[in-house]
Amino acid sequence: MSLMSKSLPPHLAEAIKAAAFDQGPFPALVIGPDGALAAVNEAAETLFGQSLSLLTRGRFDSALLPGSALVSLVDRALAENARVREHAVEVVLFGQPSFEADAAAAPLGDRSVLLTLNVKNGPLAAERAADPTALRSVIGLGQMLAHEIKNPLAGIRGAAQLLKVGAAPEDQLLAQLIVDETERIRRLVDRMEVFADNAPPNREPVNIHEVLDRVRALAANGVADGLTIREHYDPSLPPVFGDEDQLIQIFLNLVKNSAEAAHSRRDGRGEITITTAYRHGVLVRGVNDKTAKGAPLEVRIQDNGLGVPAALRENLFHPFVTTKANGAGLGLALVAKLVSGHNGLIGFESEPGRTVFRVLLPVSPFPLSRES
């Protein structure tokens, strides 16, 4: 008997346990003694989405591929009558993208099993990556750089420009090198300074398709020039509740990344696909929110590039993580910060020839104030 059940009436203790299960941060599923799914929490509903129906049609193992490590883990927990764990389990449902998770199974006493997943990639992993607390170090670094580096940097640049005026031709090249490098450092500091801006987004009803049309036009005439860009829009979507400028920045960064990946194809057949859809039942609990809020509006940015290297996938939204030789690794970290500020989720899945970034955003409680 737990300490909680000793000090509280049984019905209240059970209610508290049920609430803790439902609001827990990790996906949790209870498999009954007949092998069928008996209960799931909100995090599991968010993770599996519509594919959850596959798990409820019959036995839990019928929705998984033969030889699934999750089925073996549940069987071990029952056989050993003890909590068992497995690291880096690949979870695959029929017809659904796979994801990796650390899994634990614990017997509940009536041949039922509690299965919990600590997701390594996919929507819930991205939700953790989008948590602003993961960016505190780079926010502090951005503030420090802004105050301690930009002023002396401007002095160095000015002095180099003065030296260049009266310098011999061979020395002018060195002076110009100093100017160029100080300018490059200034641009990096400016980008990092953005992380120190903790002001909430100026949110209002926004037509997400107008945002994506603008992003598409900017990309088609710039980074995505020469690529095929396809759109699959759901015209019935309600307005999103967001900051239009920040939404443009979010999706422009994602399309830019996809374009660079698609350009890496040697056959010159790079493609980007932008898709919008409505996902029922998606709930997001913000960092300081006590209740979960709906974020059912989904935007997917897909490319057919080489894919994200496996070694980078777990930390892809963290600062300074990049696949580019000359990249600073701040673009996706900033995207994650902005999405989190909108009470949204961002996730991705990647394999050679197919990478998809998914952004889930809340629907506006107010109608559009202008024609769209």
Task: Please outline what is shown here.
This protein is of the alpha+beta class and 372 residues long. The protein contains 13 helices and 14 strands.
Give a written overview of the molecule:
A five-stranded antiparallel beta sheet has the order 2-1-5-4-3. Strands 7-9-12-14-13 form a five-stranded mixed beta sheet. The protein has helices spanning 3-7, 10-23, 42-48, 52-56, 69-80, 123-129, 136-148, 150-166, 169-193, 208-220, 244-263, 310-313, 331-341, and strands spanning 28-31, 37-40, 84-91, 99-107, 113-119, 204-206, 228-232, 240-242, 271-278, 283-284, 293-294, 297-303, 345-351, 354-361. Helices cover 41% and strands 21% of the residues. The chain is an alpha+beta fold. The chain has 13 helices and 14 strands. The longest helix is centred in the middle third of the chain and has 25 residues, at 169-193. Helix 7 packs across helix 9 (169-193) and helix 8 (150-166) packs antiparallel against helix 9 (169-193). The chain folds into three domains: 3-119, 2-Layer Sandwich (Beta-Lactamase); 132-196; 204-361, Heat Shock Protein 90 (2-Layer Sandwich), CATH 3.30.565.10. The model is unreliable at 1-8 and 126-134 (pLDDT under 50).
